[in-house]
Design goal:
The protein has five helices and no strands. With 108 residues, the protein is mainly alpha-helical. It has a single domain (6-106), classed as Up-down Bundle (Four Helix Bundle (Hemerythrin (Met), subunit A)). α1 (6-29) packs antiparallel against α2. The N and C termini lie far apart (38 Å).
Length: 108
Amino acid sequence: MAFLRQYEILIKKAKSDLKAGKNLLEDFTNGDDELDLETIMFHFQQCAETLLKSLLSFNKYHITKTHGIEDLLSTINNEKSKLQLMLTNLYHLLNMQLKDDMRLLMTI
């Protein structure tokens, strides 16, 4: 079995949070009164943060221990000249399923 690179591990974690969020959201919309939107949105936020970390990792940036989307976006923004390359790499990095899932999230 091959070892996974850090960005691959992060993408797997992002997919897991995305799936958890989608499943919880479906249960919530079907009337599960033990769930709240804060818990559901936590998983979607974790997914977004982890994807940003995978983007930085893929592009060989040191990832600081943070749970702030703003901090991660600021790191990316500070490297504007490399942003286009980073976004292109992210596009190739993610598989079609994850991209489709993220498009679905944007409609919620």
